[in-house]
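Shift notes (night). Ran 4'-phosphopantetheinyl transferase superfamily protein while the centrifuge was going.
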Amino acid sequence: MENKLYLLMADKQLDPQEYQQMFQLLSPERQERLRRISSKNAKQLSLLGDILTRILLCEHFNLSNKQLSIDIGNHGKPFLSGYPNAHFNISHSADAVLCGICNTPIGVDIEKIKPANLAIAKRFFTFEECEYIQEDPKTANERFIFLWTRKESYIKWAGGGLSIPLNSFDVLKVQREVVFYSEKLDGYLLSVCAKFPPQEIHRLDMDGLRERMEILK
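Came back to this:
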């Protein structure tokens, strides 16, 4: 299966009844994790990310929702227990949820384009990456986000979490056996790290998500 990307735009709050209907489709462990999230927006995005992930795993690997046992690795990367060739990764920002699914490891990240603290680059980026940001002051902010999403996607692909120092690798260069793919969409910047780039981005709205939820019931 090729690397597939799905982008969900969720610009409205779920009503309590619909939230609860989706909540009941998750495992007890995931339900407990959601209960511990205090921010209402973060809680909804996390829920929608879980639902989207479950839909895609069921669709692409011919599984039922009850067969899905999603565990968390030592460094926080989720994986589908018992299915070593089913790989997925998820990210959300503002109103967007991004999910990548593949039969080889994948890491994804999405960030809304907004003013960033560029001083962070001096602490966490390589010298060459800092130079790249400073080349053009007009695009410095967007270049920072471009690099940040690539770094996040890389450490999520590797599954090492924050145990991998962000300045220990340069995302402007080829990294081992992986490739990077980045795209700017609707005020967001997304990046993917995988064995090969995605062929396209499948876009979903909330109505499209609701239609595909039937596979989980």
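Residues 108 and 153 are 5 Å apart (CA to CA). The longest helix spans residues 40-61.
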